[in-house]
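Pilot study result, target chain (291 residues):
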Amino acid sequence: MAEEVKTEANADSEIVVVVNGEPITAFKFYAELEEQAGHQVLQNMIIESLIMQEVQKQKLSITEADIVEQLERLRKQFPNEQSFQYALMGISQVELYSQLRVQAALWKLGTRNITVTDEEMKKFYDENKEEYLEPEEVRAAHILVKTEDEAKEIIGKLNDGGDFAQLAKEHGLDGTKDRGGDLGFFTREDMVPEFSEAAFALEEGAYTKEPVKSQFGFHVIRLDERKAAKQSSFDEVKPQLRQEILGEKAIPSQKLIEELVAKSKFDWKWDRYSNLFGGLSPQPQTEKTAE
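Predicted structure:
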């Protein structure tokens, strides 16, 4: 108790900022943070802890390949690459990696006892063959800026022999800037119409001579490579087929989390959070008595 009082006293005496002579102490600041987001933050921390404990219990491993796989799953939730990159703006690499690691763990737990046969994959392929018709794709890089004048200035530097990747790193606003503006391969439908129209009209190695305006800002686009449309064979898409069937068979993440919470024991030191999981009724933590 004395330690707790001492800690609060130290926090109350530490000043975060003084506003027109009125101090805001660290204690008040942390109390406000807890009031606004404490329940959600603590719930997320507990759920993540439960998930990773179960991963260890089941002797599963989360590899870098699993993280990349979840990143691709996340990417597919967006209508195009630009929307995906825009959504990642403001999310740190550490935070993104942590979220993907949890999703990878849920995927491993939800699919660990599921098998997919070649017969299932072949049947799925034959019934959904049109989904594996690969449309024309291009690989391009871009530099996204706020204003048309900025874009025109960058185009001028490119005309003078400037390095596209370096200019992207210096001026780009989205997550592609750290890889020279590279967007990877995409179809016409992956990008907003005005972006696709400009990109697909370019010759390989060429860049737009005028800024391309979209809902995200102004782009300077360079086309790097082009792939013609083709029908993917069964063997080519077997890994994808397996993942899609696994996804259909997997235990839903919410069900997994509810089961983990329901069977876990909690020793609540702060009673105000003891009903954090509502009606899920986790088991109370019992203290061992000396024999």
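One observation from the pilot: Residues 1-9, 281-291 have pLDDT under 50 and may be disordered. A full batch analysis is planned for the follow-on phase.
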